[in-house]
C-alpha cells in the first residue's frame, strides 16, 4: 500500500481576520480559540509546530507551588484551575503525578520553616480540591536519599504532560476542524502596516523557497523567544519585551531504587529543580541562564550539564550513575518578560499581552511569557482582547481523577484498537495513550494493510499507521516532524541510528518515497535529533553500514 502526503498549499493572497505568528503551544491554542469563535484564522510557524520552547520544557502541568513564595496568588489559582481542565479534557496526555518536595535543612535553615511550608501546601491542596494518599512512595524515597544529610520531605500532587508535542498536534487538528489554516515551515519576513495599523504579512515558504503575502485585520505575535526578532525585522519600534532565559535539562536512565514520584528539590545553589520520571527515563532540570542569542541555536553548556548532574548526585549518591550515563542534554529559551537586574526566579510567569497601538502597529498583539499549564486561558485572553466572544470552559472534573481510573479508560480504548487494528494489546495501549479517541481512526487504517501495522522500529510498540496519520492529518512534513513531535518515539531510551533508518524505510515505503529520499530524510532527521538532544554517539561505522 502506498500513500502520498497532502500537497502543501500556502494561503497566497488570502484574507484573514487573524494571523498568528508562531506554532508553539500558545500560538496553536490562540488559533484554535479564534477559529472556534467564528473568525478566519491562519497560523504560520517558521520551523515545525511545537519544535521550539514547547518541546524543550520540563513537561509538567503544575499549579506553580513556587509562585506562592513570590506572592502570585492569582497565578497559582489560575494554574490549578487550568491544570484541572487539562486533566479532564486530555486524560491520556495529562496525568496526575505525586510530587515530593525535598529540602536539605542544612542549606537554608532560616529561609523556610516547616510551618510556612505546610501552610503553603495546605493552601495549594485546598485551592486544587485534591485529596491524596502518600502511600509507600515517601518511605521508599527516604531510603534512597543521602543518609548523611538532614532532609525534610513533603508530599503534594500536580500533573505531567510527557509529550506536549502531542497536545499541540491535537489542538492543531481541532483548529483545522474549526476552519483554521495552518502552515509550518513558513517564515514571516515582514509585518505590513498602513496608517498605523497592521494589514498583513509577507511570508516565505522555506521548503518551496517561494514568497507570498496574506492580508489580516489582526495579528498575534506568539513566537515566544523570537518575539523581539519578529518586531525588529518589521521595523516596529518598541521597548524590548522578552528577556530570554535558557533552561537546560539532562536525561538519565532509571536506576534501581529510583523513586516512583517526581522530586521537587533544590540544586547546589538553592535554585529549584525537578527530577521526574519521564518516558521510561529520568528528566532532570532546569537551569536559568540569560540567553540573548538565536533561540533556535541555544545549547546546554558543559557547566549547566555538570550543575544538573552534580545536584542529582547529591540527592542520590548511591544511584550508581555517572556523567557518562547521561543520554541526552537539551535546552530551550523561556520568553520571560524583560526585567533587567531582576533574578530570573523572581520574574513573573504570568503572560502579558502587549498591544502595539502606540507603536504604530494597531491590531498587533505580542504575547510575552506564558507556560504549558495556562495556554488555554492565555488563548481566551487573546481572543477576548480581539473582541472575539469566548465562553469559560466547563470543568469536566471536580478534582484530579485517580490514576487507576485513567488507566482503566485507556485499557478500554486499547482493547478496541487491538481488536480493530489486529495488533497486540501492548501496542494498542501505546497508540491509545498518545492519540486518545483518535486511536480508533488509526486502528481502522492499520486494519487495511499489514505494512501499516508494522512497528516503527524493532523495540517500539508504536506503528507505521501513526506516522501516516501525522502526515495526512497533523501537518507533519519531514521525518523529524514525525519521530520527534507527532509520534515522538525518538525521545525514548531505545532509540539509535539504526532505529532511525528502520523507521525511515518503513514509513517511506508506505508513502512511496524513493530510496534516495529515504536516505535524505534519514540523514536530515539524524542532524536535527543531534542538534536538539545531543545524544551520546554510537560506535563508529554504524551510519556507513546503514546507508551504504
How does this model look, in words?
The structure is a single chain. This protein has 548 residues and is an alpha/beta fold. Among the domains are: 90-153 and 245-333, D-Amino Acid Oxidase, subunit A, domain 2 (D-Amino Acid Oxidase, Chain A, domain 2), CATH 3.30.9; 403-547. It is 36% helix and 22% strand. It has 17 helices and 17 strands. Strands 3, 4, 5, 10, 11, 12, 13, 14 and 15 form a nine-stranded mixed beta sheet that branches. A hairpin with a 2-residue loop joins strand 12 (272-278) and strand 13. Helix 13 packs across helix 14 (479-486). It is globular and about 65 Å long. Residues 396-400 and 538-548 have low confidence and may be disordered.
Describe the protein's topology.
Layout: E1 15-21, H1 25-36, E2 41-44, E3 60-61, H2 73-89, E4 94-104, H3 114-128, H4 137-144, E5 151-161, H5 164-177, E6 181-183, E7 186-194, E8 197-205, E9 210-221, H6 227-233, E10 242-253, E11 262-266, E12 272-278, E13 281-285, E14 289-290, H7 302-315, E15 328-337, E16 352-355, E17 364-368, H8 375-385, H9 403-421, H10 425-435, H11 439-446, H12 450-453, H13 464-473, H14 479-486, H15 497-511, H16 515-533, H17 542-547
Parallel strand pairs: 1-2, 1-9, 2-6, 4-11, 9-17
Antiparallel strand pairs: 3-5, 4-5, 7-8, 8-9, 10-13, 10-14, 10-15, 11-12, 12-13, 16-17
Helix pairs in contact: 1-5, 1-8, 9-10, 9-11, 10-11, 11-13, 13-14, 15-16
Amino acid at each position: 500500500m502506498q500513500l502520498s502526503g497532502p500537497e502543501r498549499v500556502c494561503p497566497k493572497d488570502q484574507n484573514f481576520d487573524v494571523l498568528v505568528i508562531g506554532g508553539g503551544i500558545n500560538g496553536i491554542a490562540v488559533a484554535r480559540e479564534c477559529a472556534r469563535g467564528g473568525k478566519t484564522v491562519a497560523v504560520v510557524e517558521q520551523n515545525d509546530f511545537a519544535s521550539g520552547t514547547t518541546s524543550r520544557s520540563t513537561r509538567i502541568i503544575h499549579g506553580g507551588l513556587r509562585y506562592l513564595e513570590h506572592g502570585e496568588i492569582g497565578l497559582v489559582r489560575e494554574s490549578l484551575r487550568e491544570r484541572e481542565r487539562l486533566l479532564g479534557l486530555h486524560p491520556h496526555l495529562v496525568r496526575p503525578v505525586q510530587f515530593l518536595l525535598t529540602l536539605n535543612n542544612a542549606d537554608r535553615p532560616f529561609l523556610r520553616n516547616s510551618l510556612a511550608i505546610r501552610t503553603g501546601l495546605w493552601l495549594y491542596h485546598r485551592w486544587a480540591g485534591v485529596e491524596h494518599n502518600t502511600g509507600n512512595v515517601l518511605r521508599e524515597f527516604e531510603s534512597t536519599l543521602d543518609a548523611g544529610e538532614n532532609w525534610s520531605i513533603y508530599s503534594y500532587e500536580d500533573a505531567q504532560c510527557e509529550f506536549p508535542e502531542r497536545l499541540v498536534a491535537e489542538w492543531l487538528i481541532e483548529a483545522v476542524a474549526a476552519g483554521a489554516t495552518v502552515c509550518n515551515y513558513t517564515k514571516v519576513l515582514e509585518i505590513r502596516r498602513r496608517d498605523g495599523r497592521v494589514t498583513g504579512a509577507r511570508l516565505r515558504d522555506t521548503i518551496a523557497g517561494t514568497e507570498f503575502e496574506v492580508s489580516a485585520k489582526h495579528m498575534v505575535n506568539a513566537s515566544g523567544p523570537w518575539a523581539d526578532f519578529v518586531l525588529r525585522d518589521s521595523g516596529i519600534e518598541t521597548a524590548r519585551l522578552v528577556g530570554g532565559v535558557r533552561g537546560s535539562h539532562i536525561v538519565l536512565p532509571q536506576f534501581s531504587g529510583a523513586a516512583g514520584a517526581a522530586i521537587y528539590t533544590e540544586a547546589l545553589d538553592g535554585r529549584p529543580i525537578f527530577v521526574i520520571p519521564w518516558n521510561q527515563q529520568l528528566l532532570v532540570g532546569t537551569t536559568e541562564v540569560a540567553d540573548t542569542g538565536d533561540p533556535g541555536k541555544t545549547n546546554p553548556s558543559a557547566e549547566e550539564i555538570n550543575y544538573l548532574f552534580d545536584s542529582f548526585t547529591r540527592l542520590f549518591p548511591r544511584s550508581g550513575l555517572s556523567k557518562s550515563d547521561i543520554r541526552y542534554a537539551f535546552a530551550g529559551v523561556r520568553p520571560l518578560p524583560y526585567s533587567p537586574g531582576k533574578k530570573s526566579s523572581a520574574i513573573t510567569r504570568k503572560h502579558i499581552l502587549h498591544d502595539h497601538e502606540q507603536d504604530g502597529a494597531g491590531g498587533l498583539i505580542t504575547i510575552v511569557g506564558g507556560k504549558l499549564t495556562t495556554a488555554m486561558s492565555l488563548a481566551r485572553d487573546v481572543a477576548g482582547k480581539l473582541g472575539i466572544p469566548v465562553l469559560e470552559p466547563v470543568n469536566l472534573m471536580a478534582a484530579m481523577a485517580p490514576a487507576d481510573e485513567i488507566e482503566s479508560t485507556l485499557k478500554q480504548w486499547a482493547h478496541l484498537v487491538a481488536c480493530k487494528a489486529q495488533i497486540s494489546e501492548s501496542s494498542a495501549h501505546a497508540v491509545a495513550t498518545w492519540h486518545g479517541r483518535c486511536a480508533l481512526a488509526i486502528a481502522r487504517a492499520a486494519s487495511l494493510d499489514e505494512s501499516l501495522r508494522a512497528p516503527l522500529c524493532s523495540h517500539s510498540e508504536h506503528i507505521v499507521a501513526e506516522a501516516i496519520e501525522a502526515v495526512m492529518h497533523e501537518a507533519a512534513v519531514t521525518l523529524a516532524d514525525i519521530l520527534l513531535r507527532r509520534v515522538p518515539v525518538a525521545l525514548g531510551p531505545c532509540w539509535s541510528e539504526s532505529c532511525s533508518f528502520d523507521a525511515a524505510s518503513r514509513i517511506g515505503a508506505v508513502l512511496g518515497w524513493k530510496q534516495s529520499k529515504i536516505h535524505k530524510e534519514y540523514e536530515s532527521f539524524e542532524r536535527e535529533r543531534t542538534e536538539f538532544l545531543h545524544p551520546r554517539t554510537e560506535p563508529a561505522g554504524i551510519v556507513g553500514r546503514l546507508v551504504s
